[in-house]
Amino acid sequence: MMNIIIGQYVPGKSILHHMDPRSKLLAVFALIFIVFLANNWVTYGVIVILTLVAIVLSRVRLRFIYKGLKPILLVIIITFVLNAFFTKSGEAIFDYGWFHLTTGGLQQAAFISVRLLVIVIMTTLLTLTTTPIDITDGLENLLRPFKKLRFPVHEFALMMSIALRFIPTLMEETEKIMKAQTARGVEFSSGPLTQRIKAILPLLVPLFISAFKRAEDLAMAMEARGYRGDIGRTKLRLLKWGLKDSLLLLVVIVLIPVLVLLRG
Amino acid sequence: MMKSREKLKMMIVSALFAAMTAIMAQIEIPLPLVPISGQTFAVGLTATVIGANYGALAMILYAALGAIGLPVFAQFSAGFSVIVGPTGGYIVSFIISAFIIGFILERTRFNFTMAIIANIIGMIMSLILGTIQLKYVADLSWHAAMVSGVYPFLIVGVIKAVLSAVIGILARKRLLSAHLLS
Q1: Are both A19 and A83 inside the same structural domain?
Q2: Is A215 part of a structural domain of the chain?
């Protein structure tokens, strides 16, 4: 349960942990696009080295990074295999009926797998070194300009915090309702499939009703405390932009012309 | 005053539905071949119960929760990497799918037949949009993308769409009669 509240965050004291969530968000977002600039061994090399440096700086144990990679590792392998066998360029290494492996195909497969890996590792590093609530605050702050376009940035951040806050509560409630309905004779975990599907209704209806009631209570409580959107609202957690944040952005900006020059 | 509170209440309801989607995504009914996860079921259900705008809002929140690192996607995966990754299109498509389902129901009627039609349309939309991202991110051919992204999920998808339609309408009726939803 604790897992779902703090997300993937791994507490630590590294330089990446101490950075402002805004600089990390901007850097990762830019890198996702910058990675697509790489198209030969040199440019991919630069990006891989940069990723390795980021991993070292985060001082997060590799086990956690692997955990972030695991869900899409299979996809990367499938991508590698499909690209290796369906791209026909360069010299043939291996040819047998339907299967043909070429040097060009192998290179293409390697590049695309590295690109996917880098994107996943960079974004995983962000969520490994930043708490969900920090990311929410950072996003709210970064998206502030969109308020001018009437995009409800503050309301969005508020709803994120409410969802974050209530996931454990709703999980507990689901368990409670399941126990209560089991006591009344509903079968959740055994019996034929049709019976188990029928058991969904006595679980979901009380859950929805309590969610709506909770929302009504919370809305009333917020209004009673003077909530009027973000008008006159103060913050408990303040974000602090430092030198290292500026440096990080500088590295990312410099990376663009470097890659453009080195790419083939 | 009443109106602004109703809006605030529905905003909170959307947040709670995002949270419930996150929980349901973790529930899996093991079946031979393709297991049924609660994720897409929750999308149709949310849209059928709270409609287009709030349903889509709940799905935006759900995607955002996962993006910032909560293990809310199926099989406890998380992170912005999932959204920009090959299977991320399916998560983004939930937003559009929820909107379409809600929109069809709001323009017609919230009854079983319409809900089943809307949910099936939403499910197919979601599969198509998700597969487009799968094709481009994983650099697959259209045929390979369809084989890995559409065909295996069609039959289970229809079953889930019918389930979320029926359960959604039943739950909506109870909420309406309890004056919790207007």
Answers
A1: yes
A2: yes
Give B171 to chain A, closest Cα distance, Å: 6
Residue A168 lies in a domain: yes
Read off the tokens for A187.
């079968």
Q: Do A71 and B82 touch (CB under 8 A)?
A: yes
Cβ neighbours of A168 in B, within 8 Å: none
Determine whether the interchain pair B72/A4 forms a contact, defined as Cβ–Cβ distance below 8 Å: yes
Report the alpha-carbon distance of residue A220 to residue A241 in Å, rounded.
36
Residue A181 belongs to some domain of the structure? yes
Regarding whether A22 and A125 lie in a shared domain, the answer is yes
Beta strands in chain B, from DSSP E residues, in sequence order: 28-29, 36-37
CA pair distance A161, B18, nearest whole angstrom: 11
Reported pTM: 0.76
Question: Same structural domain for residues A244 and A124?
Answer: yes
Check B15 against A163: CB less than 8 A apart. Answer: yes
Q: By residue range, what is the domain housing residue A38?
A: 2-130+240-262
Do A125 and A254 fall within a single domain? yes
- Give CA–CA dist B142/B145, Å, rounded: 5
Tens digits of per-residue pLDDT, A49-63? 999 999 999 998 888
A27-78 pLDDT per residue, tens = 988 988 888 888 889 999 999 999 999 999 999 888 888 877 776 787 788 7
User: Smallest Cβ distance to B5: which of A32, A132, A219?
Assistant: A219
